[in-house]
């Protein structure tokens, strides 16, 4: 295993080197999509598989590189006023929708101000800071804010603000519009057909506004429901690209070690999936901060990373993922230390009250992980009872706060104000959702810091506030952070420039090409 | 009793089966002594093949847990669930069968239609539904297995009771004014014992298989290391670690085979005339 892991790491390094040859046009990319998306209308549905396919059909104003710095997409340039209140975008002027209609700033205003406000909850929250969205001319859009909002430049990503065609949707019922079955975007690929349970076919947009792009003729998304069959499909050459999460982790090293097989864990920086254990702060042993710290010390997270995640990803040091802006390493660290955990339990006088552990019902890796954590905790003297559950039961138990410890992972969307604050601020405590402040952590100081940091103007000021928040949180341990998940994308090495942005495969096919 | 053992001994397969079963029972009882550490403990690096380390003759699984220790503790779970669920289904099946056979008429009709209702639903599907509804735990698994396995018992007992019902000694008991319950309990049931014992030994085997299948599908008690769980967990890694599914599979095969051989032997021993006829 160790040997295999090292060679895996070696391929990783090779894979991250950029291509030097000139791109080649033509060819078809055969990709796995898992699970089958419920819809391809990105303005209405934003779950993982929808973003992955439709991110090549729809576009937003910007893309983001690995450090989450904005790059041009529909906007070729942009300016932010010194007071942080006015964002001006200059759009490409030769953009056409897939049905031939011209694209203009009116589409952007319609999408952001009308359509998405209605359909996109996550964006709606960010748009609360916006006073007006206007289009002074056909190629300019101006966002005026009520107050400075630090993460604002980060919301122009495809899955967050997909631009939809005004001429098709204006004045219609968005949910029942027939165009939802044949998505029309501005992206590098056009929708051709979707045979449910079989495949989704996209073809090259010949009129794409950036000359010479895309390189590929077609993208063929294979829908294969069984994980083992997906692995076999890659081995036998039916598919050439396995996006993150499409095969079981146990198959990753074997597939990555095949001939002409490359692997990368990049392309998830924007989403920044961070896993943790919810700890019920309200009642039971988990209400005691010493117990929660003991849990952190008791877990061998490095082992879980190597045994279950192929050594990909990283042990989480803070509530902010290291790929997210404003991460700091200057926090309380919890290395594997069972002795320390035992001491803390003794100090609090833990009496052996059993705690319930709820695994995440997302397959074998998560089940094994729960077993490993249970064993870790039992070795320091915590009595753990594992509760079996399915996805619906898991959602319900978490939403109703009926658990002691529970696995989860959430996305960070590049900025603590978007993806971190929601887990820890007390105004976000409400039954009924498994994604809010489920653990019931209340700290007025933390509330105040997150509130201030969201609207602070300068980067330095925000960094200072978020550093403080991370220091407080790592001391209080409201939840037990596990790993920054590394979802590997496995692909044939002759597929080049596939993962070049912070959302990876989701918008990567624009630049990808297949070397002959 | 000595006669019984003599006849049982004549069936060599049955003796072998008994030997294997005794061994499995011993391993189950002695598991905590043989392996003081929990079978869930991660003791070595993951995916250690068999025979590479003396202390771990069967290697380790995906989390570096001792496969041999898992097998020993798995024997406990399989035997416990097999025995208890069989006892529970006997407790359901025998009274229903006895009442139906003894009273006949409308009672028989009602009870048999009820039994058939359970027989028409596929066993395994019903067990899955029951376990899924009540959340997987030892109790719910035992309950589910018992609920799907009692109908054959009821039908067997009913048939036996029907034939015994018309015997003279039963009629004599009725005439002597004994209560119905006494007649069933004292006169009839003791004479149905031998087929029930044979059936029960086979039911334990079926129950072990059912529990393994449930665990394989991830519907086992998540706090218990069982053979079915071990195979289910090994399924995804079968290409790189054959031993993880092979050994627990072998354990299930051997145990179930042993129980079937014993059932055969019991049948020979308890119905001597029946068995001789066939040979």
From TrEMBL, chain A:
Keyword Transmembrane: no
An example Gene Ontology CC term for this record: outer membrane-bounded periplasmic space
GO molecular function: peptide transmembrane transporter activity
One Pfam family cited in the UniProt record for this chain: SBP_bac_5
Location of the protein in the cell: Periplasm
Signal peptide boundaries: 1-21
GO biological process, one term: peptide transport
Stretches assigned to the Solute-binding protein family domain: 69-421
Alphabetized UniProt keyword annotations: Signal
Organism domain of life: Bacteria
Entry similarity comment: Belongs to the bacterial solute-binding protein 5 family.
Record protein name field: ABC transporter substrate-binding protein
Species for this entry: Roseibium aggregatum
Lineage of source species: Bacteria, Pseudomonadati, Pseudomonadota, Alphaproteobacteria, Hyphomicrobiales
From TrEMBL, chain B:
Domain ABC transmembrane type-1: 75-263
CDD domains: TM_PBP2 (cd06261)
Transmembrane segments: 12-35, 79-103, 124-150, 196-220, 241-262
Protein origin, superkingdom: Bacteria
InterPro entries membership: BP-dependent_transpt_permease (IPR050366), MetI-like (IPR000515), MetI-like_sf (IPR035906), OppC_N (IPR025966)
GO biological process: peptide transport; protein transport; transmembrane transport
PANTHER family for the chain: D,D-DIPEPTIDE TRANSPORT SYSTEM PERMEASE PROTEIN DDPC-RELATED, OLIGOPEPTIDE TRANSPORT SYSTEM PERMEASE PROTEIN APPC
Family according to the record: Belongs to the binding-protein-dependent transport system permease family.
Protein name from the UniProt record: ABC transporter permease
Organism listed in the record: Roseibium aggregatum
Source organism phylogeny: Bacteria, Pseudomonadati, Pseudomonadota, Alphaproteobacteria, Hyphomicrobiales
């Amino acid at each position: 295993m160790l040997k295999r892991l090292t060679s895996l790491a070696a391929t990783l390094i090779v894979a991250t080197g950029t291509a030097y040859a000139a791109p080649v046009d033509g060819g078809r990319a055969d990709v796995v999509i898992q699970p089958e998306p419920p819809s391809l209308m990105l303005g209405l549905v934003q779950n993982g598989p929808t973003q992955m396919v439709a991110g090549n059909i729809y576009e937003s104003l910007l893309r983001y590189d690995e450090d989450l710095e904005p790059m041009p997409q529909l906007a070729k340039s942009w300016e932010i006023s010194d007071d942080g209140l006015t964002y001006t975008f200059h759009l490409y002027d030769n953009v056409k929708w897939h049905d031939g209609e011209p694209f203009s700033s009116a589409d952007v205003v319609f999408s952001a101000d009308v359509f998405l406000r209605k359909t996109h909850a996550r964006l709606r929250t960010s748009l609360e800071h916006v006073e007006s969205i206007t289009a002074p001319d056909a190629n300019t859009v101006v966002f005026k804010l009520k107050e400075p909002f630090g993460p604002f430049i980060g919301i122009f990503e495809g899955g967050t603000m997909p631009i939809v065609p005004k001429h098709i949707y204006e004045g219609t019922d968005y949910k029942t519009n027939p165009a939802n079955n044949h998505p029309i975007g501005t992206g590098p690929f056009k929708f051709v057909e979707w045979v449910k349970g079989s495949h989704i076919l996209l073809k090259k947009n010949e009129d794409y506004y950036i000359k010479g792009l895309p390189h590929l003729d077609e993208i063929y998304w294979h829908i294969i429901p069984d994980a083992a069959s997906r692995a076999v499909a890659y081995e036998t050459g039916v598919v050439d690209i396995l996006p993150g999460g499409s095969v079981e982790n146990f198959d990753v090293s074997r597939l990555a070690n095949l001939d002409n097989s490359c692997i990368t864990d990049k392309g998830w920086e924007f989403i920044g999936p961070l896993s943790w254990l919810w700890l019920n702060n309200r009642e039971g042993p988990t209400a005691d901060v010493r117990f929660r710290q003991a849990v952190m010390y008791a877990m061998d997270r490095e082992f879980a990373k190597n045994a279950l995640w192929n050594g990909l990803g990283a042990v989480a040091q803070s509530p902010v993922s290291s790929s997210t802006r404003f991460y700091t390493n200057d926090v309380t660290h919890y290395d594997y230390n069972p002795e320390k955990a035992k001491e803390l339990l003794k100090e609090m006088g833990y009496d052996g009250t059993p705690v319930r552990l709820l695994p995440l019902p997302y397959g074998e890796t998560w089940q094994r992980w729960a077993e490993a954590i249970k064993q870790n905790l039992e070795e320091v003297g915590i009595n753990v009872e594992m509760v079996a559950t399915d996805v619906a039961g898991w959602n319900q138990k978490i939403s109703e706060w009926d658990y002691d410890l529970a696995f989860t992972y959430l996305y960070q969307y590049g900025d603590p104000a978007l993806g971190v604050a929601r887990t820890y601020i007390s105004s976000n405590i409400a039954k009924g959702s498994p994604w809010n402040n489920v653990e019931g952590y209340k700290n007025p100081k933390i509330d105040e810091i997150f509130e201030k940091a969201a609207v602070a103007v300068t980067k330095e000021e925000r960094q200072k506030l978020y550093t403080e928040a991370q220091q407080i949180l790592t001391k209080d341990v409201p939840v037990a952070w596990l790993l920054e998940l590394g979802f590997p994308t496995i692909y044939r090495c002759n597929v080049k420039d596939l993962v070049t942005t912070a959302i990876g495969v989701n918008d990567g096919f624009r630049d990808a090409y297949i070397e002959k | 009793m000595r006669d019984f053992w003599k006849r049982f001994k004549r069936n060599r397969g049955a003796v072998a089966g008994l030997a294997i079963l005794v061994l499995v029972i011993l391993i189950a009882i002695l598991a905590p002594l043989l392996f003081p550490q929990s079978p869930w403990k991660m003791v070595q690096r993951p995916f250690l093949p068999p025979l590479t380390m003396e202390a771990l003759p069967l290697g380790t699984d995906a989390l570096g847990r001792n496969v041999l220790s898992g097998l020993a503790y798995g024997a406990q779970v399989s035997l416990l669930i097999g025995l208890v669920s069989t006892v529970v289904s006997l407790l359901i099946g025998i009274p229903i069968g006895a009442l139906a056979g003894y009273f006949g008429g409308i009672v028989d009709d009602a009870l048999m239609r009820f039994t058939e209702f359970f027989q028409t639903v596929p066993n395994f599907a019903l067990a899955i539904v029951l376990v899924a509804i009540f959340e997987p735990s030892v109790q719910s698994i035992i309950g589910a297995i018992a609920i799907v396995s009692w109908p054959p018992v009821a039908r067997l007992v009913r048939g036996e009771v029907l034939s015994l019902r018309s015997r003279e000694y039963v009629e004599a008991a009725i005439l002597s004014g004994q209560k119905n319950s006494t007649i069933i309990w004292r006169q009839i049931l003791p004479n149905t014992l031998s087929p029930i014992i044979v059936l029960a030994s086979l039911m334990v085997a079926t129950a072990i298989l059912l529990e393994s299948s449930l665990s394989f599908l991830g519907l086992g008690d998540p706090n218990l290391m069982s053979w079915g769980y071990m195979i289910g967990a090994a399924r995804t890694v079968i290409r790189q670690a054959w031993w993880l599914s092979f050994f627990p599979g072998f354990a299930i095969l051997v145990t179930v085979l042993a129980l079937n051989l014993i059932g055969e032997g019991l049948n020979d021993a308890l119905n001597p005339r029946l068995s001789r006829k066939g040979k």
